[in-house]
Amino acid sequence: MRDSVRMPRAPLAGGGAGSPPVRRGAPQRVRDSLVGMNETARPEADAVVSVRGLSKSYGGKLVLDRFDMDIQAGEVVGLIGANGAGKTTAVECIQGLRRQDAGSIRVFGLDPARDAQRVRSQIGSQLQDSGLPDRMRVSEAVALFAGPDASDPAALMEQFGIAHRARAPFAGLSGGERQRLFLVLALLNRPRMVILDELTQGLDPAARRGVWAAVEQLRRTGVTVLLVTHELTEAEALCDRVLAMRAGRILDQGTPAELIERHAGQAIIRFTLPVSDDHAAATALQQLNRLPEVQSVTRTGDIVTVRGGRVVIAHVGAWLTSRPEPVPADLDVHIPDLETALLTLLTDPPDEATEKAGALAAPAQATGGLR
After folding, report:
1. Do 117 and 225 reside in the same domain of the chain?
2. Structural domain boundaries enclosing 222
3. Is residue 29 a contact partner of residue 20, using CB atoms and an 8 Å limit?
4. 330 with 244, same domain?
5. Antiparallel, parallel or unpaired: β 267-272 and 193-197
6. What distance in Å separates the CA atoms of residue 16 and residue 126, rounded to the nearest whole number?
7. 207 in the same domain as 289
8. Residue ranges in the chain modelled with pLDDT below 50
9. What is the pLDDT of residues 189-220, one digit of tens each?
10. CB within 10 Å: which end of the chain, N or C, has fewer?
């Protein structure tokens, strides 16, 4: 019986014919990254990827709508968006697999439509639908995809923790081992940029952490990484910047902390604060209200609720530890995270999301803070 083979239609892993299996991924960087702001973006001189006014339609359906982005060398950039947001089409255009209807793309200063092979030779891809023959051994796969200027295969396999599995067949690898193998193949031919699509999908927590550590190794070596993921905790842990995409446009972008600040709402701290009388209760509430970043303080019975920015957590904690009473045993802290921020942004009705993005653009643009 023949082994089942799932191979990509084009080798894109840095080194031409000796490239690992690839499919699709997606990056994005936008100077003015909000809906309606794309036309004002300016190219970055040192950008690895620079896209301007990119549009693409299929059968009359607009998939990419005049969006711009810049990706800088050495960044780990995450692209978040629901199925159909345009992520795959954007990456196909960037890699020269699909021609845009309008707009310009430069990757390492090259036009992917005219210089597709030169662009692909500098990109390594670990992508969701990659596959190898079941009986192919790890060492055989590495030898197959190694180009003439490849890195030392043994050193790479050791670096990513699969050297001891060199003689194992692909079908015998665990999910985490397969992902690490595809990382080795993606890096084998010394690419300047790596695309990672749903890197840890289906992995157990231990395997996921191991793959995260591998991405951190890429960061340390200065490789530019484009990470497409539905795991928002993954994006928060790994990415220098995150781009939220819907309907062919970027709704917002920034560091995880910036997106959390803009879209995730307040930190909430609740605890029991027994007091001897109303005067003592009023004094405690006044002290809490005076703390930096506190937006509101309420009391229901003995339960106090404090709301504010994330930094308020530290101030309330310091206030509690400064009191003679023990820190309340029922202290509960809700910390806003990237998942809350992007779910809020991406699930708002389109008009409402656009209004929120536009409202944020003006002050950020005026100060140069939204970049």
Report:
1. yes
2. 16-259
3. no
4. no
5. unpaired
6. 15
7. no
8. 1-43, 353-371
9. 989 999 888 877 777 787 788 778 888 888 88
10. N
